[in-house]
Description:
- By secondary structure, the chain is an alpha+beta fold.
- The protein has four helices and eight strands, in the order αββββαβαβββα.
- The chain has helices spanning about 15-45, 95-110, 135-140, 185-200, and strands spanning about 55-60, 70, 75, 85-90, 120-125, 145, 165-170, 175-180.
- Strands 1-8-7-4-5-6-2-3 form an eight-stranded mixed beta sheet, with helices on one face.
- Strand 2 and strand 3 form a beta hairpin.
- The longest helix has 29 residues, at about 15-45.
Amino acid sequence: MPTLSSNANDQTPAPNRPRRNRLTLWLVLALCAAPVVASFVAYYWLQPSGHVNYGELLTPQPVPAATLAGVDTRPFSFADLKGSWVLVSIDGSACDERCRTKLLYMRQVRLAQGKNSDRIERVWLVNDDMFPNTAVVGEHPGLRVVRAPGSAVLAAFPAPTTPTAHIYVIDPLGNLMMRFPENPDPRGVLKDVSRLVRYSDWK
């Protein structure tokens, strides 16, 4: 009876395992090194030229929830606007050219948000004892015009010189968090506000 040889099938050459193992090792090393290389490139060649926001970020501080009086005699409190982004201008009742420009920018920035425009409120805090210019108020439907002479609310809006130089932003939690520079570039204001609205989760 013929004897089966245990070496009958051993003539097939074994796979080149050392070479395959080395290739696998190099692939693993490349995958591990990729994040390091990417961070190196980003740090030395792709650094942003500066911060992305146009407005100056402020340390978030809640705006006092004091009750003020609107020019329509109805009570007003910033607490009632929680859930919305709020643009604020502080000016005298006469509303000079700078005041009118700020109100115009606030109106146009809100309109530019399209379907998200209802997520933005606008407030004009009148800082003297007179009633505001009715012609100016009529140019801005939906603007909340509030009398606040001597109110502690005014002290919540910091400024290098005077708060009347700026447009301020209050977040949906009721915190003052941004101030735009004096004589702002409307494109910068629009870019910042659009980004805030787009990336926030508030409705």
